[in-house]
Structures are given as structure tokens and as C-alpha cells.
């Protein structure tokens, strides 16, 4: 299984008053390990007062650019985000897990030009920027519509870079800025709402058939935009999303009063122990000091995915795995409770 690697912070870029970008130096021997697809993320690990904290950040640079860049927006009470924005220095070393994630772009093999769209809010622009630049690089005639919501232009991550891209590709890149606390004659005022999506689909870009639509931001925005897209006959299969927060809690219908004997495969080592079914598989594994992969522990990233090879488990919520992947035995271990007396879980076979 992949492991964390110490990477040197090569550059820190101040993007907004409350957001910075971190550029990592990737040594030659780790170039292949840190190869990524547009839209993927890395997980950073750091200890604060002896307590380990893991945070996932989407990569904004493009594959093949020899550049690994992520952006960190400071959030109230955020341990790592506050540290990164106020204390992190160039030359420091951070523990970084290699790229992963299913919110990705792959260029179609048909060689034709396509239209793409994306709706992002705040730091949700990070993976979208990588996807946007990858489309421009890999598809010479394809077009990209971006709807991007923020409070003000000053708080808009990559504002200058996006304007430069739009100026360089005026016939291929179309950006609609949305500001909730600033009025601009060339931008929407408010938030990304039903009327915003309908204007883009039914008026300004009427008749465009979008090969794919990428959504990244708060859960409420993603749910709304996805609903309106489908009302406008954009097939669900063409809508791809990634959450950075989730309000959904979920629950399991099964009776969880029993115990389960669980066998876990991590880093080619097998461990068997008894766990309470009220606990999630990931929590039980971590309580045994096994080095299973994880990051958000909230069911919105894909770091903790494992394969159930024997027995059954039920997830409290699932916003990532498809029905086919669940049928194949994959599960989000941070959301999964065992429901059989024995279960085998393989973190290596994913």
C-alpha cells in the first residue's frame, strides 16, 4: 500500500488574505509515486501537541507540469489551515500521502471537440482549475464554461490566473463570477442558485451539449446544481461532484448490538481481532494502531476505501461509491459497520 512521504515545501504563494498555495518539491525517485490525474487530491499529515491531524487538499496544478500545488483556505478553528496560512515556511517538510480520488478528468479518445462546464464555490475551485487547464491542454478545440462563486473578487482564489486563462483562450473559456458580498456589472450578485444555473443552460450557453459537468463546493450547492442540471436534461452520468463539507449523517438499519471477528489486511499484514458492531470498521482498525489509510473520516473523501472479501457491512452514508463498486465489495470504512459475525477487509486490494 502507498505510504506517506516527507516532501519539502518549495514555495508558498499568498492567493487571498485567507488562502495560500503550497508548492511541493518532488524528488526524482518519487516522480512516479506522485503522478496524478486532474481532479485528484493529496493528504497531508502533521502533529499538533502530540495529536496527529490529517487533511486532504485538491491538486490545482496539471498532470505533466512537474508541479504539485495545493491551496489551503484558513477556516475558523482549523488546526492545519491556520498553521499553513500563518506559520508554514518555505523549506519546511510535511508528510504527504500520494494522490488519490475519483473526481477526475480523462480526455475522451474520440479526438472530437467537446463542451465542459463546472460550478465551484470558494476553495472548490482547486480541482476544477486542474481539470480546466487539462482540457485546454489535451483537447485543442474543446470549450469550458466555469461558474465560480465567492464573497468578493479579493477573496476569489486564482482570480488573476483565471482572468489570464480567459484572456488567452477567449473563444474556449467562459467564466461567470458570482459574488455574494460585492456588486460587479459583469458578474452575478448573490450565490449560485437555480436562476444562475438556468441562465447558463437556457440563455447564455443555450444549445451546448456538455460532455461532463464538474461540481465542487458545499453540499447544498452541489445538490441544487445537480437537480437543475438534470431538469435541463443533463444526464446524471455526466455530472461529477466532490464535496468539501457534508451535513448528511446517515444511519444503519441493521441491529448493531453484536460483536464481529474482523480480519484486516493492511500493508500485506493480516490482523484478526474482535470489534463492537456499533463502531465503524475504520475506528476499530485505528484503535488497534493499524496504519490504515484515512483522511476526512466523514465520508466525503475516498482515502479509507477497502474491499470486503468475506462477510457484510452497511454504510451510514455513501456519496462516493457507485452501486457497481459496492457490488464488487468496496466500502467506505469510516462509514461501515459490520453486520455479520465475521468479516474480512482488505485495504490493499483497491
Automatic annotation (TrEMBL):
GO terms for molecular function: 2 iron, 2 sulfur cluster binding; flavin adenine dinucleotide binding; metal ion binding; oxidoreductase activity. The keyword Chloroplast does not apply. Gene3D superfamilies: 3.10.20.30, Nucleotide-binding domain of ferredoxin-NADP reductase (FNR) module, Translation factors. The keyword rRNA-binding does not apply. Residues 260-350 form the 2Fe-2S ferredoxin-type domain. Residues 2-106 form the FAD-binding FR-type domain. It comes from Mesonia algae. This is Ring-1,2-phenylacetyl-CoA epoxidase subunit PaaE. It comes from the Bacteria. Keywords: 2Fe-2S, FAD, Flavoprotein, Iron, Iron-sulfur, Metal-binding, Oxidoreductase. Its cofactor is FAD.
Amino acid at each position: 500500500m502507498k505510504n506517506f512521504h516527507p516532501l519539502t515545501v518549495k514555495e508558498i504563494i499568498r492567493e487571498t488574505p485567507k488562502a495560500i498555495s503550497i508548492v511541493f518539491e518532488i524528488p526524482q525517485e518519487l516522480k512516479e509515486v506522485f503522478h496524478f490525474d486532474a481532479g485528484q487530491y493529496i493528504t497531508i499529515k502533521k502533529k499538533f501537541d502530540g495529536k496527529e491531524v490529517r487533511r486532504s487538499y485538491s491538486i490545482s496544478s496539471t498532470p505533466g507540469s512537474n508541479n504539485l500545488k495545493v491551496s489551503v483556505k484558513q477556516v475558523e478553528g482549523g488546526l492545519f489551515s491556520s498553521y499553513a496560512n500563518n506559520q508554514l515556511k518555505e523549506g519546511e517538510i510535511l508528510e504527504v500521502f500520494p494522490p488519490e480520488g475519483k473526481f477526475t478528468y480523462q480526455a475522451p479518445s474520440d479526438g472530437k471537440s467537446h463542451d465542459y462546464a463546472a460550478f465551484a464555490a470558494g476553495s472548490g475551485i482547486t480541482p476544477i482549475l486542474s481539470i480546466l487547464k487539462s482540457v485546454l491542454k489535451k483537447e485543442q478545440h474543446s470549450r469550458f464554461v466555469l461558474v465560480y462563486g465567492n464573497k468578493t473578487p479579493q477573496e476569489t482564489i486564482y482570480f488573476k490566473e483565471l482572468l489570464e486563462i480567459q484572456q488567452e483562450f477567449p473563444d474556449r473559456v467562459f467564466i461567470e463570477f458570482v459574488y455574494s458580498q460585492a456588486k460587479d456589472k459583469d458578474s452575478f450578485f448573490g450565490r449560485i442558485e437555480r436562476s444562475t444555473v438556468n441562465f447558463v443552460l437556457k440563455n447564455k450557453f443555450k444549445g451546448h451539449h456538455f460532455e461532463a459537468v464538474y461540481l465542487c463546493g458545499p453540499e447544498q450547492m452541489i445538490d441544487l446544481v445537480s437537480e437543475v442540471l438534470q431538469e435541463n436534461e443533463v444526464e446524471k452520468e455526466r455530472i461529477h461532484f466532490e464535496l468539501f463539507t457534508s451535513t448528511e449523517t446517515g444511519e444503519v438499519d441493521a441491529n448493531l448490538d453484536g460483536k464481529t471477528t474482523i480480519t484486516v489486511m493492511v500493508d500485506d499484514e493480516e490482523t484478526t481481532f474482535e470489534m463492537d458492531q456499533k463502531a465503524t470498521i475504520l475506528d476499530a482498525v485505528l484503535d488497534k494502531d493499524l496504519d490504515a489509510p484515512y483522511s476526512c473520516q466523514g465520508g466525503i473523501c475516498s482515502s479509507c476505501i477497502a474491499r470486503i472479501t468475506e462477510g457484510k457491512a452497511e454504510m451510514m452514508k455513501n456519496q462516493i461509491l457507485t452501486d457497481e463498486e459496492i457490488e464488487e465489495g468496496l466500502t467506505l470504512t469510516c462509514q461501515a459497520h459490520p453486520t455479520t459475525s465475521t468479516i474480512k477487509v482488505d485495504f490493499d486490494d483497491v
